[in-house]
Design a protein that fits this description.
Elements (H helix, E strand, L loop, with lengths): L23 H30 L1 H5 L7 H8 L3 H13 L4 E5 L2 E5 L2 H7 L20 H11 L10 H26 L3 H7 L2 E5 L5 H9 L4 E6 L2 H13 L5 E5 L11 E7 L8 H11 E12 L5 H4 L5 H16 L15 H10 L4 E5 L6 E7 L1
Parallel strand pairs: 3-4, 3-6, 4-5, 6-7
Antiparallel strand pairs: 1-2, 7-9, 8-9
Helix pairs in contact: 3-4, 7-9
């Protein structure tokens, strides 16, 4: 009879690799590292499912729930709910106790802030979603051979939704109350009535926030993604914003007549095929007394320094899947990728485009830096 061995228990039976001089303990440790990443992958998928099913929202503020009770609140099957709840308890994302022979689970206040109330904190459970077209893996393998990646539109309509929900919490928390007031003279212009361009506007969240906060100003959104533009138009229409207009256009196609008082680029320069051309276009589009506000990923020009980031592997993997893929989606792309627009590169490219003043703001946003750039 064949004996099955758990992949983390090579020492449970004679291993021929011992005779090859392999350090069995080191082998077990490395195997554990690999399987830990596999567990992370599976738990991330379970978080995505929980978000889609409304499980975290149903548990927010509730007393300990049985699987039957959670299923009843969400219109789902109790057996499936139980398996999901046990996964969450095993991952230490929800608390668990057995009471009167029934498994009960609850979400802590901290867990609710992180997983259920995405508008209040820095993380949305939907951030676990990874856009996955049917042929995604095959096309990504092909990109490694051809050098040409997938654009955001090629990742499907879900990608625009994913990016918005992943980045939205910080935008809601910081843009109007913290970021805008910190910029030299910008809030006053917006209150009186300014013309603003949001380049790489995505699904339009920042346009909505600013359009509502500063009704005297006019806002133009630009994005290359049709999926994002469709979402932005729907969002602004639903909000009843008459001071927002959205255009499907590349960043380098901005009007070059110096009309804008403020130009925004939030989490997008590093995704662009030719960020240098976009930055040059921004310089032509912004008034001589105007401002370019750039939000981009917090990183260093030194890989050694970046290695201090405990989430670095995730960021580089995300770059391959989305950011660098987009930045390499056309021949001649600069391919900056997720961590490529670090402060050194940002200031150099800004000055090469003709900007003279460059200020870095370190707001309480752990993932991003903000650059206030002026002619």
């Amino acid at each position: 009879m064949r004996r099955e061995v758990h992949p983390l228990q090579f020492g449970a039976m004679s291993d021929p690799r011992q005779s090859m001089g392999v350090d069995t303990e080191a082998l077990q440790a490395f195997s554990g590292l690999v399987w830990g990443y596999k567990q992370g992958q599976m738990v991330a998928f379970m978080i995505e499912l929980g978000d889609r099913l409304g499980y975290y929202r149903a548990m927010d503020g509730a007393d300990p729930l049985s699987a039957d009770e959670l299923a009843g609140r969400t219109g789902t099957h109790p057996r499936w709910a139980l398996e999901w709840l046990r996964t969450q308890a095993a991952a230490k994302l929800v608390a668990y106790e057995e009471r009167d022979g029934v498994d009960r689970f609850w979400l802590s206040p901290i867990g609710a802030l992180v997983l259920a109330r995405e508008g209040e904190v820095t993380f949305a459970s939907a951030a676990m979603r990874l856009p996955r077209p049917a042929d995604f893996s095959e096309r990504l393998v092909d990109a490694f051979h051809t050098g040409i990646g997938l654009s955001y539109d090629e990742l499907g309509v879900e990608c625009a939704h994913h990016v918005e929900r992943m980045l939205g919490p910080w935008a809601k928390a910081l843009v109007v109350p913290t970021v805008i007031p910190a910029l030299d003279g910008v809030q006053g212009k917006l209150e009186r009535g300014a013309l603003v361009a949001d380049v790489g506007c995505g699904a339009g969240l920042v346009l909505e926030l600013l359009g509502e906060a500063f009704p005297n100003s006019t806002f133009h959104g630009y994005d290359l993604s049709q999926h994002a533009i469709d979402a932005a138009r729907a969002r602004c229409a639903a909000a009843g914003l008459s001071n927002v207009e959205v255009f499907r256009a590349r960043g380098e196609a901005l009007p070059g007549d110096g009309r804008y008082d403020l130009v925004l680029t939030f989490d997008c320069i590093h995704d662009m095929v030719r960020p240098d051309l976009t930055i040059a276009a921004i310089r032509r589009a912004v008034r001589d007394d105007g401002t370019w506000l750039c939000k981009d990923i917090r990183s260093s020009a030194s890989f050694t320094d970046n290695l201090r980031n405990p989430m670095l592997a995730t960021m580089y993997a995300s770059s391959i899947v989305t950011c660098m893929s987009s930045a390499m989606s056309e021949p001649g792309g600069l391919g900056l990728g997720t961590l490529g627009f670090n402060p050194v590169v940002a200031e150099r490219m800004a000055r090469e485009a003709g900007f003279g003043r460059f200020v870095t703001h370190d707001f309480p946003d752990p993932a991003n830096l903000y650059y206030e750039v002026r002619p």
